[in-house]
Amino acid sequence: MCGILAVFGAVDDALLSQAMTASERLSHRGPDGHGVHYQPGVGALLHRRLAIMDPAAGRQPLFGRDGGALVHNGEIYNHAALRAALQTAGRVFRSGSDSEVLVHLYEARGDAFVADLDGVFAVAAMRDDDWLVARDPIGVKPLYYGRDRAGNLWFSSELKALVEHCAWFKVFPPGHVYTRRGGLRRWYERTWLEGHVDYRRDAAGLRERFEAAIDKRLMSDVPLGVLLSGGLDSSLVAALAARLVQRRDPGARLMSFAIGVDGDAPDLRAARDVAAYIGTEHHEVRLDLDDGIGALRDIVWHTESYDIPTVRASIPMYRLSRYIRDQGVKVVLSGEGSDEVFGGYLYFYFADGPEAFHRETVERVKNLHFSDVLRADKSTMAHGVEARVPFLDLAFLDLAMTIDPSLKRPLQAEAGREGRMEKALLRAAFADPADPLLPPAVLWRQKEQFSDGVGYGWVERLKAHAEAVVSDLEFAEADERFPHETPTTKEGYLYRALFAELFPGEHAARCVRRWVPRWQADGDSSGRANPLHASAVRKAR
Fold first, then answer.
1. Is the full-model pTM beyond 0.90?
2. What is the rounded CA–CA span in Å between residue 468 and residue 484?
3. What 3-state class would DSSP assign to 285?
4. Which of the residues are catalytic?
């Protein structure tokens, strides 16, 4: 996991110097080293390294046999099989890095090589006078692009490296490749992404594919752990990862990490139970509310977002990642993506039929690079920690996103007063009495969004802070100051104002997409705004 920057066009020494300065803004993504490859008049590749695979070697840019050079942010999980095939074809490797297969594939296959990859990536490559940039299908790895006033194209892992150099910039779309001669095109095609699906009538193989997704993400030459909130998603990841780690090394013990505002926070209580049940070496971190408020500017800077749920949830993850880094852990597995794939947010109960339910899951998955995977990547990489997301494994998605939505979708009548039937299909896949992976109380725990689970006082404190610092006059003039994505609450105004200071201009603002739950009267993103949430049910009694 790293930070990359590439510039293509009339690159000279002066432009290279600008690119090197811009690359320094990505240093948090790669504290273990940096590298540059420069070809005058064609382009420059710059890299900031977080050393995970073959830390002693594998420095980037990487070079092939035939003059190719490449920088990569991400992980290639099928690199061993690709390497073996390339070696059979006569290719020689200089390191054990998973990234090195990419430069050889690029030389051998051009832009077609991206279809061979099982992994997550933002990659830039060049050879002679040609070049290529590509992003993984779901956008797990961030990537932006823009053009400067001289016409040169810039590509970067984060927006902050482009804002001072480009006349315009955008989010690089997931599943796309950009080449010098072919321009921008989609390379990743799936019928479910376009809403055309021949539905599977059962979920056979779901557990097996998920276990395989976790197994491949244990690939690491540095210490690895798991984020554990005690909710269904992270608990499934942690339980299976703990089993797989112990299977590989019976004496090994997986580290798990949780955060909350106090010892009675919903997530901390549940995570404690899960950790004891599955036998992880468990760590708890407390989120001081004042410290969290003090981190608002930093988190807007790192996440490059003013989306309310992103900011709310990023601060606890940001603080937890700092602790994880200090423990010497560089890689963590996380549960992002499950709610989008299986319709796990409580608002999904109110979908108008299975087809509407399915369309919303597809829309949520397609936009994850604006929300949860953006948060997971940037909150952790702010401290040089890599987050891996097995629920977004491509083989797992090809199964999970084609299951008949009527099997995924719980009926309101089935939900019960506590709303605990969300993701019932996923729960059932792991509810084997002969193989109890999790305690029943955790397996059927109500959905808590991360910003709620760390402690219900956290969101209230953020709202109170916004009420105190944003005046009524400022808020009344919000539509004049922010005609694009006008904030509708003082909390939203606060984040939007911080973003505008750090990333001025409409181009930057259009790189953000706000997340708003559908099918419920209260548009607040907190799960507690939904009438099926346990806290709302108790109030109604």
1. yes
2. 24
3. strand
4. 2
